[in-house]
Amino acid sequence: MDLVNQDFVLLQFSQRTSGSVYLAQANIWGELSPTALYFAALVVAACLMAVMLTVLIHKYQRDIERRKETEQQLREREQQYRDLLASAERQTQELALLDQIRTALARELALPDLMRTVVKAIADTFGYALVSIYLLEDDDLVMQHQVGYEGSIENMPTDSEVMARVVRTGEPVLLEDVSRDPTVHRSADDVESEVCIPLFDQGRGVGVLNVESKKGVVLSEADLLLMMALSDHINIAIERARLYTEARENERSYRSVVENVKEVIFKTDIDGRITFLNPAWQDVTGYSVRDAMGTNILLYVHPDDRRQHMEFFNPILTRQRPSDRDEFRYVNQSGDLRWIEVNARVSEDTDGAPLGIFGTLNDITERKQIDEERFRLSKLEAISPLAGGIAHDFNNLLTGILGHISFAHLLITPEADDRLAPRLTMAERATLEAQKLTQQLLTFSKGGEPVTQIASIREILYEAATFVSRGSNVRCDFEVPEELWPGDVDSGQISQVIQNLILNAQQAMPEGGVIRIQAENLSKIVDPALQLQPGQYVRITVSDEGIGIPEQQQQKIFDPYFTTKPTGTGLGLATSHSIINNHHGAIYLESEVGEGSTFTIYLPASPDSRIEKHEEEEIYFNGTGKILVMEDEAIVRDLVADILTHCGYAVTLTEDGAEAVSTYSREHAAGRPFAAVLMDLTVPGGMGGREALQHILMKDPQARVIASSGYSNDPVMANFHEYGFAGRVPKPYRTTQLSKVLHEVLAIGHETSSQTQ
């Protein structure tokens, strides 16, 4: 019964008691004595006092209970307030942490910086003792950053540990008591609880966020929810960091390509002003990128090509063509012309309006030169057979002229010698000079193996340099010792090399000057860079005082058709290089701009060989035996018959290889063999000497056949033994040369026959 009900009962009891007393007084009042009345009054008063006291006690108890109830309510409300305050503080901390994380994630783009910021913010804001982030790399979880651990595991395999399980399953884990999970690796001995949250990138698990508490602190569902909320932001940041990293890598790759590519990458606005250039611009044009920015690209185009350049750009800007390519001449900073291939397309804004042109500029100067060289080479190859044919025919004519002159020299009487001999000698020398011209023509047009013999290199130097410098504004100074070794060389080809070097020196000194020609004997080559075979050499240097050759051009100076002269062919030095290589020598250049150039030649020397004198060449040899001559030119054929008949031989003449083979076979089968055969290598429209030789050797392996040709650069003439010939006599030749070669071949044949017997 509560206090209100108790008060009501007491009131009813008091009312009932008062009524009873009143009735009693009414009934028995008169019957009681005063004493009895006094005691009765005392009893009544005591009852009333008891009733009043009871009421007061109940009221006091009720007040006490109400006070306790109020105090309890106050305590409960105070606890609720404290709980709300604590919750508000945590929520404030969570919001502050989330805001801090969001701010950090928005600011940090590099993944390592991002991980460091996240871990530090979590630990500082909530006071978590142990915080770490691991990311998946290949098959391991690799620690990115941590707070509170000592000796934490840097790499963790994904086939064990609760963190690895979270990555595999993608499900977060709350362990209030880590001791109950045997898969937990104890990063610290006093760990109580653990929260492990998976991290994702494009829906794929890429790592974990791990929070652990020490003994006495139990992580709850609230911690799990907080970390899950954080993980959403971290996932976004990881994706942004990946995209940022990829963008940086792409930018780095793009920049590397742009900065290292050899082609110029350019952009212009619609007026042609340059807005972007890569470093290759300076390599191609010589102008710096900084100076070129903002200038009109037409400034660098050759004036004659500017209108064509504008007509090339306009259709691209107006979208008549989406892109195009063409070739133009640009002028570099040095004033040199460079052929540039322009590849261009229109640059547009987001609305499709044209902003300008972008594309590439490719320096194709060398390619154009190669194309021109190929064109020249094709023309040269077309001319070469003609030049060779002319030289061959001319040599045949010279053979007739020289042969008849030398034969006439033999036939003159002693009485007429004083009058005719000098004139015949002069005519003979003139014919030999003409022979040198045909030799140079053949070397120029076809090249070929050198036809070598022991010759005075000293004489070649003097004759070639004096001949080519005669009448020019340069002077040749010689430092060539008398005892310079001879060499086994093709005199005509070596002379051509010297003449080419002198001509180059003259062109390098348009105002005139001195060309210094030096030579010396070398018993031993000590420089391995020369790449020469061991042996003895003659070193020749030709130096000028000219303008010199830039270093970037020196590597190309011996390339076919490379020239820095407007009227040059680029053949002289290339031919010279080929000739020296074919002589198993070497040629090198040293040059400095403004200081002149020096060409150095190394030629194998033959110090122990004897140079044949002209007096010995004037001796002719008689002989006996049958000689078969195959020659298609009548003037040469008749001359050879007269010379050999005069020398004592019996001569049979044929006009081509087929007739020669038939004649040789018939006479050989009849037991009337020929002592030797003289064959022209080239017969237009018929069998030549090389093919005929094979047929003859099949009939008679001991046949002695001599090769003769107006093509003195024919490889057979250079290496006749390799083709089966016993000797050679190049056209044009003198009587003494023909008789000597025939005598030597027959003498070798007799020695071979004697040894066989």
Q: Architecture of the largest domain in CATH?
A: 2-Layer Sandwich
- Mean pLDDT across the residues is 79
Q: CATH homologous superfamily of the largest domain, by name?
A: Histidine kinase-like ATPase, C-terminal domain
Helix percent reads 40-55%
Category from helices, strands and their pairing: alpha+beta
Oligomer: single chain
Classified by CATH, the class of the largest domain is: Alpha Beta
Question: What's the CATH topology name of the largest domain?
Answer: Heat Shock Protein 90
As laid out across the biggest beta sheet, the strand order is 3-2-1-6-5-4
Count the helices. How many?
20
Count of DSSP strands: 23
What is the domain total for the residues? 5
Write down the Rg: 59 Å
Largest sheet: 6 strands, antiparallel
> How much β-strand is present in the residues?
15-25%
Shape: rod-shaped
Q: Which spans have pLDDT < 50 for at least 5 consecutive residues?
A: 566-570, 752-757
Q: Quote the distance from N terminus to C terminus.
A: 164 Å
